[in-house]
Design brief:
The chain is α+β, with helices and mostly antiparallel strands. The chain contains 12 helices and 13 strands.
């Protein structure tokens, strides 16, 4: 049967479907008879309910169910015959006119676009490189030392300095009035760690145990506490206890406490280097993948299916509500979250997904079994029992689908980098890790 497809605009199409009334009624009667054999109603034995009673009670719902099924089947058949790649769900409505003995329906829907990708030889990609230096290892060692530091009380007349742990009572007032969160007793923090605002640390630095001080503190305009953001408070702080930090020596004892079997500093640094190199590799891959994908999208031409964008928007809004709920926000499921907040990101995701799919299809970049296996083994390598982790991945189809998606992204990234004009840029370890 020839299918007539009408183009409405860009990706929007229309097909008119016709169904014989007799076919629909025959299916309705069949389902009602089947239902009558099992339906239970007061005053009747099971299977003995008269057909006219079953029809009266269930006829409308069964007819609606049959119509949905038959129209859905007809649409799928028509779209397949017309070789259409349908995006999203069709909007189906009954036609105003129908041939005699037929029911006609108009199906309006979108199709996936034709994706045109220009020659990637003209794309430019900045590829980052970074090394794990001895300085980076030294910084990591210091972080590990700080995590294992102990504290000992200082002498009474000693002034507070950076790295000391102080115990304070404080109370803040704005225009003479206390405010929520502005008062605490026996509050501990470490000077110089940035836990408190700079003005608070500056005021505490140099104080001795037993001393009190009043000082002004201007809250930043973007401070997380909206009630005090941009306002100035007067704080009274009393230093109750002052403790000096004692960091462990970088020696065999520290190495053993960190799980290094042979307990040597050399082995500790080698282990740190291995872990940092793994992290650097992952971060470089993520950054370079993003750059490659940006270059790919810039070389692609396509129209976006509105239905696909809307589906992505719905997912993003739902995820935002779930996040709010997890944070304990009341009535998070009813929170008014405008689609427009996420629209640019949703459109980019849809565009990138369509372009990547086309590149994979046209260049045979699908994930191969040996690539998936290698990636799972790499993921498992950093764990104590890799074999258990490998079984964990292979035991769940959803997890394996996620691995496959990552491998495909890696294939696409490598393909783009092999075709584009690539400029290598070396960045420092701190810059890559987002440190100052």
């Amino acid at each position: 049967m020839a299918v007539t497809v009408e183009t409405l605009e860009k990706l929007e199409r229309k097909i008119t479907l016709t169904l014989p009334v007799g076919v629909i009624q025959t299916e309705v009667d069949s389902r009602l008879r089947k239902l009558a054999r099992t339906v239970k109603m007061d005053g009747f034995r099971p299977g003995k309910v008269p057909m006219n009673v079953v029809t009266q009670r269930y006829g409308y719902s069964v007819h609606y169910e049959v119509m949905n099924d038959k129209v859905g089947e007809a649409f799928a058949t028509a779209a397949n015959e017309a070789k259409l790649r349908v995006a999203g769900q069709p909007k189906i409505s009954e036609s105003e006119t129908s041939p005699e003995g037929q029911m006609a329906f108009d199906a309006i829907f979108e199709v996936f676009p034709e994706v045109k990708i220009a020659d990637l030889a003209g794309a430019e990609v900045e590829k980052l490189t970074a090394d794990v230096t001895d300085e980076a290892i030294d910084k990591t060692v210091e972080i590990l030392r700080k995590q294992r530091r102990t504290f000992a009380q200082r002498a009474q007349d000693t002034a507070a300095q950076d790295t000391d742990r102080v115990t304070v009572d404080f109370e803040g007032k704005i225009e003479g009035e206390p405010f929520a969160g502005g008062k605490a007793a026996d509050f501990q923090f470490i000077l110089g760690d940035g836990q408190m605002l700079k003005e608070f640390e500056d005021a505490t630095r140099g104080m001795k145990a037993g001393e009190s001080k009043t000082f002004p503190l201007a809250f930043p305009a973007d401070y997380h506490g909206k009630d005090v953001a941009g306002k100035t408070a007067d704080f009274l702080v009393t230093l109750k206890k002052l403790e000096a930090a004692d960091l462990p020596e970088v020696d065999g004892a520290l190495a053993k406490s960190l799980g290094i079997a042979d307990g040597t500093v050399e082995a500790l640094r080698a282990d740190i280097r291995k872990n940092l190199e793994r992290e650097v590799k992952h971060r470089l891959l993520a950054r370079n993948k993003q750059a490659a994908m940006d270059a790919l999208v810039a070389k692609a031409e396509l129209d976006l299916p509105k239905s696909s964008v809307q589906a992505e928007l719905d997912r993003m809004v739902e995820n935002a509500r779930a996040d709010l709920k997890q944070r304990g926000i009341k009535d998070a499921d009813k929170a008014p979250i405008p689609d427009e907040i996420f629209r640019p990101q949703a459109e980019r995701r849809v565009r990138l997904g369509l372009v990547v799919a086309e590149l994979v299809r046209s260049n045979d970049l699908a994930a191969k079994p040996e690539q998936i296996k290698a990636h799972v083994e790499e993921l498992a390598a950093s764990y104590e029992k890799p074999a258990d982790v490998i079984r964990w991945y292979y035991g769940d189809n959803r997890r394996m689908a996620e691995v496959e998606a990552v491998v495909i992204e890696n294939n696409v990234t490598e393909y783009i980098l092999s075709k584009a004009k690539v400029t290598d840029k070396s960045v420092s370890f701190d810059e890559l890790m987002g440190q100052n």
